[in-house]
Structure formats: C-alpha cells, structure tokens
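Why run this: before we spend reagent on co-expression, it is cheaper to look at a predicted model of the complex and decide which construct boundaries make sense. The entries below are exactly what would go into the expression plan.
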Amino acid sequence: MRLINNLKDFHLIRTCPDSRARAGELVTPHGVVLTPVFLPVGSQGAVKTLSPEEVKDTGIAMLLANTYHLYLRPGIAVVEKMGGLHKFMAWDRAILTDSGGYQIFSLAPLRQVSDEGVIFRSHIDGSQHFITPELITQFQERLSADIIMALDECPAHDDSFEKVQRAMIRTHQWAERCQKTQKRNDQALYAIVQGGIFPQLRQQSAEYLTSLGFPGYAIGGLSLGEPKKVTLVIIEETAALLPENKPRYLMGIGSPEDIIEGVARGCDLFDSALPTRVARNGAFFTWQGRHNIQNAAYSQMEQPIEPDCDCYTCRTFSAAYLHHLFSCDELLAYRLATIHNLSFISNLMHKVRDAILNGTFSSFKDNFLTNYKPTDEQTRLNQKQRWLKSRDLGE
Amino acid sequence: MRLINNLKDFHLIRTCPDSRARAGELVTPHGVVLTPVFLPVGSQGAVKTLSPEEVKDTGIAMLLANTYHLYLRPGIAVVEKMGGLHKFMAWDRAILTDSGGYQIFSLAPLRQVSDEGVIFRSHIDGSQHFITPELITQFQERLSADIIMALDECPAHDDSFEKVQRAMIRTHQWAERCQKTQKRNDQALYAIVQGGIFPQLRQQSAEYLTSLGFPGYAIGGLSLGEPKKVTLVIIEETAALLPENKPRYLMGIGSPEDIIEGVARGCDLFDSALPTRVARNGAFFTWQGRHNIQNAAYSQMEQPIEPDCDCYTCRTFSAAYLHHLFSCDELLAYRLATIHNLSFISNLMHKVRDAILNGTFSSFKDNFLTNYKPTDEQTRLNQKQRWLKSRDLGE
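The model came back. Tokens follow.
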C-alpha cells in the first residue's frame, strides 16, 4: 500500500478495459477503503439490528449515518458531547454522513424552501426547524464523520424541467456555501449532482460542481420511481462528466444487480437501505436472486439458505431455523437475515473489485446477471411505494 | 470436581447455616450446572433478541424452552428432524423444556380438561389439539432437552380450594403417567408440585410426588397474582417438604429480589421471562434496583448505565447511546438491554453461590436487599396484568 499523505486522497488502481468500472483506494482518517464499496445505512447511529462488531464481521468498511435523523434525535450537541459519532456508536471504521437533504424533502411534512435554507417540521414531533447549508456543514463537522455531504434540494422524479432546474441551481449555490463554511481539514466534503432525468441539467450540474473543486462527487436524485432504464442512462452520462481522479458516489442505490450496473458505469461508492430493509422482511440474497425465507420450502431444510456462504448466519443455522424465527416474529430473525445480506454484499463487492483488478469484470458482470434473477420491476416499484408509505423512517 | 457417574446426579456442596440456601452441582449431558442457577426463557427456541453466543457470554449455563410453543411452531417433527433442540438453536449448554402445562392453561383459548388430557385451541391459528401426559413426554423426548417436565394442571391464583384440589390430584396422576411413559435415560423428568396457596394441598402434593421418586421437583403455580407474602410462605413450606438431595426448581420466578428470597428458602433452579421482558421495555437491573433508560437523566450520560458492570453493553456504550436507541425504537436497543440484564442475573447468581460457599449468604442477602429498591408491589401487579393482557405470547 502506498504512503498515505493526504486524508482526502483517492487513488485509482485499475480501470476495466471493456467498461468504465474502476478499482481504487479511498483514504480516510479511519482506514483505507477499497472501492467499489457499499455503505450500509445506519441513519440513527446504528445499522438496524446489528452491533458494530457484527457490521465489521460482515466485511463492511464504511457506513452511512444521517444528519437529519441525528439532528432531531439525539441532537447534534449530544453526539458531540459523547465524543463524536464514531465514539457514540462504537464504530472505528469510516463513516459518511448524508446532509439530510433527501430526508428533509422526502420525510418532513410542511417544508418551505428558500434560497436561504429550508423550514421544515420534524416527522417525529411536528416541531419546526430552519436549516441552512452553513448549519448543515457545521452539524456535520460536529458529528465528525470522515466524509460529509453538501446540502442539496432533491426534486421528485416526475417534477417538471423548470422545477428540477430551479432545485439544481439552488443545490449549486448551497454546495458553494457548504464549501465556504467548512473549517475542518480532516473531513472530505462531497458535492451532489442533481438535474433529475434531464441529461442537459445533469451536464450543467456536473460541470458547475466540478468547477468548484470538491474531493468527491455524488450523483443524487435517482432511483426515486423513474424507470430503471432511465436511471442507468443518467448514471452513465453523469459519471462520464465527473473527474476521473475523484471518487463518485451513487446515492441510494443498493440492490446487487444495480450496484453492478453502477460499477460498470464508473461509480465507486454506493449506499442503500435495501439490503437491510429487505432482510427484515425475510428476503435473503443468494447468487440466484433474492429468496424469501418464509417460503414453505424452507420449513424443513437442514442446509443453510446459501450453502456456500460463510457468514455467521449460514455457518450456524439451518434454513428451517430461520424460517421458524420469521414465522414467530422472533427479533433474532431480523438480525440473522441482516448479517447474511450485508455479508453477501461485502462479498460481492470484493469479487467485483478482484474482477476489475484481474481484468475480468465484464465476464464477471455477465455471469452474475445471468444467474441472479432480479426482482421484477413492477414488484420493485410496489415494494418501494409500500415502503415510502409505511414511512419506515429510521432508514 | 468430582467424578460424574450419573447424568441425573445432583450434588449438594454446602448449605447455609442461617437459612435454607444451598450450593450444588447439577450434572447434565451438556455440562455441570452450578446451583443456584437462573434459566432465561427461550420459549420458541431463542432467548428473545440474543444469539446463542451472546447468551453464553452473559454466563448463562442452562435455558428454558417450551414444549407448547415448539409443538405449535415449528412442530416437534421439524425440531427432531433438525437433530433436536440443541442443534436446531445452536446451543450446546443445558436445556430444560417446560411441559407447556402453564401455557395451555394461560394462553390457549377454549380448553377442555379431562383426566385423559387437554383439548385446546392454538393461540396462533385457532386449530384444535388434544394432548396427554404420554404425548407431552414423547414430545419432550423428541425435543431432546436435558431436563423435561411432567404435564401439570395449573389453576388460577384465586380458584377455590376444591378446584385447586381437583387440579392437584390430576397433576399427580399425570406426573405418574409421564414417569411411566419415559423411555430415554439421558433426560431427567421433574414433577411439579401444585396446590395453589393452600398449605394443606401443597403438603399433600409434595408428599405424593416425592413418593414416586423423581430426580427433581418443581414448585409450580406461584407468582400468578397472589400477594408476595403468600408466595414466600408457600415456597418456604413446600421446599421444606421436598427431598434434601434433589434439585428444587421454583418456576416462573425471576426478579433479582425474588430469586434471593427463593434461594434463602432452599430453591436451586429459577426461570422467568422477567429479566428479558423488562429489558425490552428499557428497564436495566442495577445494584440499586431497576432503572429505566428512557428517563431523561440518561440522555447525556457518558458513563454506562451500571459503571461496575463488565457486560458487553456496559463495556461498549454510554447510557446516552442506549437512551437514544430506545428513543428511536432501534432493535439493537432491546438486545443491548437483554445482554445487560442477563449478565446482571448471572453475576448475581455467582455472588449468591460464592456467599453460600463462604458461609456469608445471610449478610449478602441483607446487604443486597438493603441496596436494591424493588419495584413496588402495585406496579408489579399492574405490569404483570398489562403483560398478560397484551399476550406477549412468545415468552
């Protein structure tokens, strides 16, 4: 491993000859993170159902927490007083905090946006709050994550061109204000490219933000209900406009098949609540696709649900036991499924990276997508809508 | 440690000079269990929220599972096919299965009791079932626990003398039938003394069951709503009537203060869902009594909730973090509280045993009860009623 002389460094190690996939190293104050990398979601300072040791054991190198959630509960001052987020949640690997832009625009009722900032009501107790790019940056400095995000305005996937354009321009202004506010030099502040499903706006956004010179760039505002083909085109076009030597973070995307597509289009970081959320509904990732443990076929199966898997869950328990725990709503069930799904994704990311390093990513991708039966798009959209409606607000 | 030549052996090591407290060793096919011992409840084949490794780490040597629950879900045949309960739940220490008598009489609607057995409807799906002492014994042989329990009829705490007497006589007949049915010689079958709050019936029950010669005796039908003073008198009188050289198992009693009182009256085994159930409501055991983590005083406390405790929870997290997890209903909260409470009880049982061995149990007991502020009786009764009504059926 090379000498680490800049905590914001990102080193490209190898690029795939047949696609835009890249393998890299992202240097953080809490360790070097090998990319492509998947970040599980621990919005409220915990990856749902898991202890920090368990998250580590699944091979996860960095997780995501959320400024919006932590600001409302327990409050920035409490986390700061407890020594920052790493110490508070007993996690000594890297953390990225999202700015909370997406959450304010998707969870909080009665928000009022102005150029100055956003007034919103808490989804928890209805209390009113006013935040600005300056405040969000200061909050994230006090939370002490390794990577922090600029505040963005996230439009709905079916908003008009004009509305999306206005949100994009505001996102640019806010990114600049976040950049000017930043005082700490041991955190990397990433900007978020917006522009919805309009290639012209995505291009403007990428160019403008790139001109400001951030240590990393996120692609936001995708996978919000638009058709998957559109998502992939926008990812491909946007990623191609971002600097080669900076990490690219594809926000909110995290099914195994979508991660692979994102990697192929040149993205390096991925986060999503999907692997942990579907786990709590009994969906286990396998190399053939998602399998639901509640299926009667598992009720008497002595094998683990994925016989080749070496995660704690598969090493220790039969599929029949997992089926039983889910039947009984035993809380242990959700944990064992979460351990499996995060181990699966970690393992997948390692295989993806090895394939890029070996120059075999394209065949790995084809092979994976041939065997892995994705959840069909209508089911995905229905699940997503159910989830958004049920307001599973912790993630 | 002495030579183990009988898997049903119970060795008395020392008796307290000032009380009836005893320290012993209970030999099982899954290890020697030091008594007095507390068994956490894992009715459905899991101690709620914990993995088997975590249960072990708290120092627990034996746990309780429930024939009623496992018969309904996943079914006796499934557990048997998976290699028995130990293998099914990946627990290699001792297990005691309750016969399910108490559950049938407290959870199942529309039960009909005859001398032959019980017809009841499942609390899960309303399906109708008929069980007999013979069947319950065979079920427990197939589940493969180390200690199994005779089927008993458990009357309500305010039933009439005549009703309690009839249930007792039936319990005696059923115990005899269980004994005759037993084929395996590597499981110890314990009988359950009934007789409600009537000393005369308790005496008859103890004498009758003792005459049949079981390797252990339980005291059932207590802590069901009768005043605590009555409970203690019945425990004291009943335990005194049971053979000195056999283990005595006080069923369903498990608050720290009640366990100490039970030990002082000569009981060796204790089980209760209380330590794990109150944990999930945010109540942490401390040497001063139960403290609720949701109290605002904990919201900014950097210390662990019990600074002297060496459990995983207290070693790793501040009280403020636990307070936050409970505020957010993060599932990890319930687990961390459960780990703490079981560690506390394990630790307490070790201290109790050491005190008996050192001849200082009486002063240990006085000291403990002086510092430990028990939940007042009205609150206890209210909590118990709320729990029974809410039908938290998993425990």
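Chain A touches chain B at residues 44-46, 48-52, 73-74, 78, 81-82, 88-90, 299-300, 302, 312, 316-318, 320-321, 323-325, 327-332, 334-336, 394 (CB under 8 Å). The first helix of chain A runs from residue 52 to 57. Bring this page to Monday's planning discussion.
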